[in-house]
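Appendix B, Record 12. Input sequence as logged:
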Amino acid sequence: MGFALDLNTPAENIHPKLLISLDVVLVMSVHAGFGGQDFDERVYAKITKLHKLKQESGSDFAIIVDGGVKPKYIKPLTKLGVSEVVVGRSLLSGKIEENLQQFNDQLKT
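Logged structural output:
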């Protein structure tokens, strides 16, 4: 089961009893439904809180981030416990092969 948090919804809004049932929590780092927005770095604090809630509950849900993710955000997100990201325009705009390589390069270092 999955749960999504929009940009303005605090991580604390997930009921503690629900946490142990989750497989994934999707954290939106932009306002949903409007492509091409810039990644909102305020989500770092939300992800930190979510990771803490995950540890406290003993749950093993994956944390996924969606919205405005560019290669430069991969390392900071990974350090915060994010296991997956959703990418769109930052991968598909321009030369896909080069963009994909930039994402892969961030995963290697």
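The mean pLDDT is 93.
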